[in-house]
Specification:
The chain has 450 residues and is α/β, with parallel strands linked by helices. The chain has 2 domains: 289 residues, Carbamate kinase (3-Layer(aba) Sandwich), CATH 3.40.1160.10; 148 residues, VC0802-like, CATH 3.30.2130.10. The protein is built from 14 helices and 15 strands. It has an 8-stranded mixed beta sheet with strand order 3-4-2-1-7-9-10-8, with helices on both faces. A 5-stranded antiparallel beta sheet has the order 12-11-13-15-14. Strands 5-6 form a two-stranded antiparallel ribbon. Helix 2 runs antiparallel to helix 5 and helix 13 crosses helix 14. The longest helix has 26 residues. The structure holds aspartic acid.
Length: 450
């Protein structure tokens, strides 16, 4: 059995939805279809999820949302008309949106998630009708009815483990083709909760794990995963045929936009291979992400990069002799609810790399004050505007000289390395550089390794 997930561009208009129907019906083992909300039709277009968020903001501010609502309804109406589906579905979608808009606004997160989830929910209902209109036995399945239970971290929810048993029971033996909305589930007390943005990938991976699928096909709008972001290195031609879960996890964490980083884990745990494919060119084999693969010594699978990081640098003479220093430093971040990404350290100093978005200026002020007071450092410095560049490959583990090759490439390109860290897994090297040197760094590393 295959679980297929189709991203926002694959449901952006009627032509794309028709491709989904063709792809799924061409292979009877494709039994479960997860869909996103309609995405962008053109580069300058808006995603339905963003329209829903804007509409929810208006409602929360007690402002008129009629034209915002009309724009959302029109996105679905266009697909319905162009596919020749009954007009009733558009009326139902409008009714559903009005119902959500009229809901309780006393808890911002609950209201917002309920609005955001409407994108995927109505998309799945519409896509189910598209299948039915082609004579297929397809049915929309609601995540609550299927037993998809999440934590109540609205906008950032996680699956409750018990869901796997319910999902397996409700989905595995479904006779009809299951059309399942991505991105959201329900809390135990029946509230809608969403995964982080881009979270339909996570839904697909969870369902694939629950039913122990033979493969999780993740359909998007590129032929395969590229070893480097083509916007930074336009000359990159061929994609990656196969990589391991660990490689994908490292790459997607650092800005590989194709696949959500949290979506790797459920498939890994269940040992389900992931196949990233293109809705627009289904004949292409795409990229396989698997447990293990044969690797050539010295080979790098990809170079990823992301900006929006900051660094808390703490210096204290003889830090290495002070028992509990690191724990106390991290404790201060824990009190503030800030998670860290990397922690390269020296004998007398340590850096904690965190995402800018998790570290507001007020939070920074409190953290710095507390570090000064509790740890009595010689210096504490917060620097923003960092990018991380990751060189990833199982082959790094076996090969001598990879770090020197990377650092030479960076120095030849005049890139100043602010931080370096080799992941304990030894399949990645991380370089921290100033955000404005990110593109140059990636280009230099690509030239060196590919
Ligand atoms: N529609 C949601 C978003 O734009 C989730 C997804 O597409 O995966 O973030």
């Amino acid at each position: 059995m295959k679980v297929c997930k189709f991203g926002g561009t694959s449901v952006a208009n009627a032509e794309q939805v028709a491709k989904i129907v063709d792809i799924v019906l061409a292979d009877p083992s494709r039994r479960i279809v997860v869909v996103s909300a309609p995405g962008k039709r053109t580069k300058s277009d808006a995603k339905v999820t963003d329209l829903l968020i804007a509409c929810a903001e208006l409602a929360l501010a007690d402002k008129d949302c009629e034209s915002a609502l009309a724009a959302i309804v029109e996105r679905y109406a266009e697909i319905q008309r162009d596919l020749g589906l009954p007009v009733g579905i558009t009326a139902e979608i409008e009714k559903d949106l009005r119902f959500r808009l009229a809901g309780d606004k006393s808890h911002r997160g609950i209201f917002m998630d309920c609005m955001k989830a409407a994108g995927e929910d109505n998309s799945a209902k519409l896509v189910a009708q598209a299948f039915q209109s082609r004579g297929a036995r397809a049915v929309y399945v609601n995540p609550h009815d299927a037993g998809m239970y999440l934590t109540s971290d609205y906008g950032n929810a996680q699956l409750l483990d018990e869901s796997y048993q319910y999902l397996a029971k409700t989905l595995r033996d479904h006779e009809e083709l299951v059309i399942f909305p991505g991105f959201f589930g329900y809390t135990k007390d029946g509230k809608v909760a969403t995964f982080p943005r881009g979270g339909s990938d996570i839904t697909g991976s969870i369902l694939a794990a629950a039913v122990k699928a033979d493969v999780y096909e993740n359909f998007t709008d590129v032929d395969s995963v590229y070893p480097v972001d083509p916007r930074l290195v336009p000359e990159v031609k061929s994609g990656i045929a196969a990589m391991t879960y660990r490689e994908m996890r490292e790459l997607s964490y650092a800005g590989f936009g194709v696949f959500h980083d949290e979506a790797v884990i459920p498939a890994v745990k269940a040992g389900v291979p992931i196949n990233v494919r293109n809705t627009n060119r289904p004949e292409e084999p795409g990229t396989m992400i698997v447990q293990s693969r044969r690797v050539l010594a010295g080979s790098v699978v990809g170079i990823a990069s992301d900006d929006g990081f900051c660094n808390i640098f703490v210096d204290k003479y003889m830090m290495n002799r002070e028992v509990g220093f690191g724990r106390h430093l991290l404790q201060i971040l824990e009190w503030e609810g800030v998670s860290y990404e990397h922690m390269p350290s020296g004998i007398d100093n340590v850096s904690v790399v965190i995402r800018d978005r998790n570290f507001s200026p007020e939070c920074e002020r409190r953290v710095v004050e507390r570090i000064k007071r509790d740890l009595n450092p010689d210096a504490v410095l917060v620097e923003r505007g960092y990018a991380l560049v990751m060189v990833v490959g199982e082959g790094l583990y076996y090969t001598v000289g990879m770090a020197s090759k990377a650092t030479r490439a960076l120095s030849d390109a005049g890139v100043n390395i602010e931080m370096m860290n080799q992941g304990s897994s030894e399949i990645s090297m991380m370089f921290g550089v100033k955000a404005e040197q990110r593109a140059k760094a990636v280009q230099a590393l690509y030239k060196a390794f590919f």
